[in-house]
Amino acid sequence: MEKSIAKELKEKLLINNKNAGERLDDSEIRNAEKFCFGYTDFLNAAKTERLTVDYSVNLLEKKGFKVFDKNIKYTTGDKIYYVNREKAIIAAVIGNLPINKGVNLIASHIDSPRLDLKPRPLYEQGQVALFKTHYYGGIKKYQWSTIPLSLVGIIVKKDGTKISVNIGENSDDPVFTVTDLLPHLADEQMKRSLKDGIKGEELNLLVGLYPFKDDKESEKVKLNIMNILHEKYNITEHDFLSAELEAVPSFCAKDVGLDRSMVGGYGQDDRVCAYTSLKAILDIEKPERCAVVILADKEEVGSQGNTGLQSSYLRYFIADLAAPYGVKAREVLSSTQCLSADVNTAFDPTFPDVVEKNNAAYLNYGVVLTKYTGARGKTGSSDANAEYLAKIRNLFDENGIIWQTGELGKVDEGGGGTVASYLANLNIDVVDVGVPVLSMHSPFEVTSKLDIHMAYKAFVKFLTDNL
Prior knowledge:
Layout: H1 5-13, H2 20-23, H3 26-45, H4 49-62, E1 66-67, E2 79-84, E3 88-93, E4 103-109, E5 114-125, E6 128-136, E7 149-156, E8 162-167, E9 205-208, H5 220-233, E10 243-249, E11 254-256, E12 262-265, H6 268-282, E13 290-296, H7 313-322, H8 329-334, E14 337-340, E15 344-345, E16 367-370, E17 374-375, H9 386-398, E18 403-405, E19 415-416, H10 420-424, E20 429-434, E21 436-437, E22 445-448, H11 449-464
Parallel strand pairs: 1-2, 4-13, 4-14, 14-20, 15-21, 16-18
Antiparallel strand pairs: 2-3, 3-13, 5-6, 5-10, 6-9, 7-8, 7-10, 11-12, 12-22, 16-20, 17-19
Helix pairs in contact: 3-11, 6-11
């Protein structure tokens, strides 16, 4: 049956707005589902930035990556990695082209919203021991009450001894929780705005009840808890001052939906892009241009600090990589092309009014290309140039990558940022590409398996192409 003129024009002139589930055959869908087995394992094992780095190093070394040595002049196909303070990592595969031609760079972040313990967290009130927390990143505070939480991180003693803490992740471990009022007694609380339903100083972790059996002392429950910690880790209360302890959801990532089409779990912003970009560089051998993936810390609090991308460690890594060839870092960076791999919000049919539907991302419609982020008047955005966007469009279309565009909500609703602007400050061409997410920044975020796999395919093509 012949196509009508209107149908031909529609196919030629308009955006293909089909769900990926309709566009992919059964074998590709099965490949996506299989790919997500490894992804859910990663989510369950890598709930903090330090655990993510450890997990990444293990995968990289299995694939032949070696610790970066700035005194070596590397050759095509060499695989290297560099760890920054155990909280960020850079991996690279040396390409065929000279380093002064730039690198193909993918940057994602591995920190996620959570509850951090305060420097002096342990206290007793009403013969109950609790930990005080300070929330990290943008959260809806009420979502973090009455759920099981694990305590994960490190304690560093005065002599430099480092103690790993992981309580709640094993099936026989105890867990922690933030309590909430029963509805019978919550009339005054429920007069609060939703934003303040649970206040920051009410995000206290329930720790224990048993008192130390000595009638002569006060705060006996606190003392008993500290004694348990001393026996287990050989620490005193002073050692909390040099600790990084994070409360994260203790439940596992799971398939979501009767058709198992989605992944639900903690930390998918932005570990969904971290995992797919890491897998991409693990699976390439001899790219045309040097391929680099960076998994950064601190994005959720503005990329500050020496493990965030406002730091200079990426620039220094590029300088050290280029120096043996007699090339300056600025030559490499000015010729570099980058994907800022971060998530975008997905259209939620329960809350449709916060997005402008023509420019919203949808689950199962592929990886999201976001020209600019920012708040309201594009504040804080790098706003990718049209020439670079044309290159990325062509790369995706020529390689069968299913992609869509998306903005982070309606213009006046708010917005958010990514690491793109900090990379653009290095004179790098950069645009945001990532996976759409439902319930972003909650303890249980949701993504589409087909979108996850499409992100992986997009990242492989980007890393191996001479744009």
